[in-house]
Amino acid sequence: MTTTQSIGVAVIGAGMAGRAHLAGYRAAPTQYGAGLPEVRLVAVADAHEPFARDAARRYGYQRAETDWRAIAEAPDIDAVSVVVANHLHREIVEGLLATGKHVLCEKPLAPTVADAQAMVEAAEQSGRVAATGFTLRRSPAINAIRQQVAEGPLGRVQHFNGHYWCDYGHHPDAPMSWRYRGGTGTGALSDIGSHLVDLGEFFCGPVRSVRGAVLSTQVPDRPVPLGTAVGHSADVQVSAEREPVENEDIATFTATFDSGAVGTFSVSRVACGLANSLGFEVFAEGGAATFDMARPAEFTFADSSLPAATSGYRSVVVGPQHPYIASGLPMDFPSVGHGQNDFFAWQARAFLEQIAGLNHLPHCPTLADGLHNLRVLDAIVSSATADGKSVAVQ
Ligand SMILES: NC(=O)c1ccc[n+]([C@@H]2O[C@H](COP(=O)([O-])OP(=O)(O)OC[C@H]3O[C@@H](n4cnc5c(N)ncnc54)[C@H](O)[C@@H]3O)[C@@H](O)[C@H]2O)c1
């Protein structure tokens, strides 16, 4: 791919994550301007016009649209983030690829494996950059741990233990939204479990089989919102009418990886008091590491080759020596830290650099990675349906 003179960007969906993408494209060239072509902030599209207009104003995009097709047809747009409800991803991604756009589609790629397969085929035919938004892979701390697995003292992972616990569904009157609709497996498992499965594979390689899966719905119905809800919808008024919840609040399962590693996973959207609690432990042949998203610029690390007197877990604050943030932060020293929103800027940077043909950082996950992720989720649903039996990933 040749270097592009300038890249016009747009975001479809101005909800919770859409705003993170809008901010990400703003931040990427301010932090990494020397290496990137000019980035033009062209348009934001949201079916709810006030959201589109407000987002365009706040984040400094030239146009607000209400129909994604206006983005697909616009000649001044090259790269588009698709950040709407999962069941809308396929139609929009296929439409964008057909008009020659580079696409960054949010996770989970689609509600079904069949949809995702079609999206992968569309991407292959298009020849465009087509990425899946496994944003956590752009975390410097998570990458620093992986580097210690691949090249450092940790070596082969034996056990990955991860949780992703959120409370957005804890209150029984949290309003109905697209997150609670769709069949078994499209709830907490897809919404947040997709990230955790991807991280497990980031450290251990492909999942071979899953077993012991339990999917449980704790809140059977939810009130219909009176207004347009965004993200986890905590602040929208609700009516007295209630609708049935169609998917799971909790998912737990174990996995075996091709590498011989074992994974234990716990996912919940009804975890009281925990807004966005992702954490994991990686136990490996040469040591161990832990990550807690409450402190996103840090990790702990234990090297088992050290003498007993000085071994043990030590905290590492990720700083400007890490290639994802080197020379990129305004205050460029470790203790300043960074937050979870910054991951979207580094994801945007990676996507834009790939489009420009700059290859000095790992590429974004592909749509095929998003398809594979859905195959693992599918196996988890099959295991749960069969009372926890072992199911191989297709
Ligand atoms: N990578 C991450 O860390 C991360 C975090 C949160 C959400 N997500 C993903 O992002 C996507 C969106 O999640 P969200 O929480 O931002 O949802 P949201 O409900 O907050 O926002 C969705 C927006 O899409 C708009 N919309 C609905 N139909 C539309 C259409 N046809 N065309 C254009 N806009 C339309 C809605 O008005 C709303 O503003 C999901 O796929 C979700 O899984 C990813």
Q: Specify the CATH architecture of the largest domain.
A: 2-Layer Sandwich
Query: Per the principal axes of the C-alpha atoms, what is the gross shape?
Result: globular
Oligomeric form of this entry?
Answer: single chain
Helix run count: 9
> What portion of the residues fall into strands of 2 or more residues?
25-35%
Judged by helices, strands and strand pairing, the structural class is: alpha/beta
Strand order of the largest sheet: 16-15-14-13-7-12-11-8-17
Name the hetero compounds present: nicotinamide-adenine-dinucleotide
Q: SSE string, helix = H, strand = E? A: EHEHEHEHEHEHEHEEEEEEEEEHHE
| Rg over CA atoms | 21 Å
Number of domains: 2
Low-confidence spans: pLDDT under 50, at least 5 residues? Answer: none
Count of strand segments = 17
CATH fold group of the largest domain: Dihydrodipicolinate Reductase, domain 2
Assign the CATH superfamily of the largest domain.
Dihydrodipicolinate Reductase, domain 2
What is the end-to-end distance?
32 Å
Largest sheet: 9 strands, mixed
The overall pLDDT average reads 94
Q: What is the CATH C-level name of the largest domain?
A: Alpha Beta
